[in-house]
Design a protein that fits this description.
6-stranded parallel β-sheet; mainly beta; Pectate Lyase C-like; 467 residues; 23-stranded mixed β-sheet; globular; 2 domains; 5 helices
Length: 467
């Protein structure tokens, strides 16, 4: 009897959720939503007191390890009510930095925080790796359940990664791996997948030394009011900016240049109320990739990526400009990309939604507006429900709105879709799109409720998308 009650509850819940779904009928609707969302996302405020790291013994010679000096400065700043921990001109070598509440880590113009290449300088913490929870090396800058934290200033964060440090752990020869070197992430990655499928408690999934799972660069975890502005971020071991389960995230005027393996620029994961603007990405993987967890972990936690604004950013190299997925099992909704510019022969796609039936989840209400694209390789708009292995959780993609898109030197396709017959991409709208230099106008399979208005490819009207 209990089983049937649960099934009935699931059906009622499904009907209720479906009843709430209403696709946009005009760009005025998402533009109004964006205006309201911007009022909710606020910059944290800090006490006007500075803590200079050199007062705590730091030496900016690029050789002296300053981990303890950073720790002491941050802890004192936090204990006394907050303020700025200031990094002056110089190169300051350090291990992992833990940010505490009410602390603004401020990099003065001409300063560099250079991170150690020694894995022993990164303690084991509770983290996520490719959307899976585990105990692994601390991110280079990490916070857990903190509030009002920031990284600001015109200095540089240098992850100090290269073909001989961190990158070769990915196991690819083009990033320095060969069989004479110890270290390859593949066995650990497989083991982490196994633990997740078994639903082994996350704090018992212990990695670190001998497992070769690279840390991410900046990862505030379960934190509120995270702000980042003006800094240059380069040479990350893996993902660059990766807030996880955070709320109220504001990123502005940040530059990310990092061409290692899996060097995504900005990966907000299962976050709510996120605004990134006026920033620059030149990366070895997706420029911006919105995520909500992989497979069992993403579904069990059940936190979608929600209310994200990507505004006035510039994307160069990368697998995708604005990407949703692939670790998107928790779903995504209300994602707004407006006024962005993309241009690189090495940029594969402008807008990409990638997921699979091992993920599941619903991706809905994606607004891609006023976008200028120079060159790209594969597709201006790409839907993929068959990314990585299949499973038993068919995903949903619906209410995707693309308006005012210009492409000068298109790649293979204008629109490329790879979906399930049982779950077609639904309510796809494209208005005022002009794309030139495209080899093939489109390649699609399962789409439903498609609206095309004033769309041209190579000067010819595009009036339908049919298999």
């Amino acid at each position: 009897m209990k089983k049937y009650i649960l099934i009935l509850f699931a059906l009622v819940l499904s009907v209720s959720v479906s009843a709430q779904y209403k696709p946009w009928t005009s760009a005025k609707q998402p533009l109004k939503e964006i205006k309201a969302l911007k009022k909710q996302i606020k910059k944290p405020e800090f006490r006007k007191v500075d803590y200079l790291i050199t007062d705590f013994g730091a030496v900016g010679d690029g050789k002296t390890k300053n981990t303890e000096a950073f720790k002491k400065a941050i802890e004192k700043c936090n204990a006394e009510g907050g303020g700025r921990v200031v990094v002056p001109n110089g190169v300051f070598l350090t291990g992992a930095i833990y940010l505490k509440s009410n602390v603004n880590l401020h990099l003065s113009d001409g300063s560099t925080i250079l991170f150690s290449q020694d894995s022993n300088d990164y303690p084991i913490v509770f983290t996520r790796w490719e959307g899976m929870e585990c105990m692994n090396y601390s991110s280079l800058i990490y916070a857990y359940e903190e509030e009002n934290i920031a990284i600001t200033g015109k200095g540089t964060l240098d992850g100090n990664s290269d073909l001989d440090n961190w990158w070769f752990w990915c196991g690819a020869t083009k990033y320095g791996y060969n069989e004479t070197r110890p270290g390859r992430q593949n066995p650990a990655r497989a083991k982490l997948h196994e633990y997740m499928a078994q639903r082994k408690p996350a704090r018992e999934r212990i990695f670190g030394d001998g497992w070769y799972l690279r840390p991410n660069f900046v990862q505030p975890y379960k934190s509120k009011n995270f702000y980042m502005a003006d800094v240059l971020v380069k040479n990350s071991p893996m993902w660059n900016l990766n807030p996880v389960l955070c709320e109220n995230v504001l990123i502005e005027r940040v530059k990310v240049i990092s061409h290692g393996p899996n060097n995504d620029g900005f990966d907000p994961e299962a976050c709510k109320n996120v605004w990134i603007k006026d920033s620059y990405f030149d990366t070895g993987d997706d420029c911006i990739a919105i995520k909500s967890g992989r497979d069992e972990d993403g579904r069990d936690i059940g936190r979608p990526a929600e209310n994200h604004i990507i505004e006035n950013c510039e994307m160069k190299d990368g697998h995708g400009g604005v990407v949703i997925g692939s670790e998107i099992a928790g779903g995504a909704k209300s994602i707004y990309a407006i006024g962005n510019v993309m241009d690189s022969k090495n940029l594969d796609r402008a807008l990409r939604i990638k997921t699979s039936s091992s993920r599941g989840g619903t991706i809905e209400n994606v607004f891609f507006y006023n976008t200028k694209v120079g060159a790209y390789k594969e597709a201006a708009v790409r839907f993929n429900m068959h990314y990585e292995k299949p499973g038993n959780h068919i995903p949903t993609i619906r209410n995707i709105w693309v308006e005012n898109l210009t492409v000068d030197k298109g790649g293979k396709y204008a629109v490329f879709s790879d979906a399930y017959e049982s779950s077609p991409v639904t309510d796809f709208t494209m208005i005022n799109a002009k794309m030139t230099g495209v080899q093939i106008p489109y390649k699609v399979d399962y789409l439903k409720n498609v609206t095309l208005k004033n769309v041209t490819v190579n000067g010819q009207p595009l009036t339908e998308l049919k298999p």
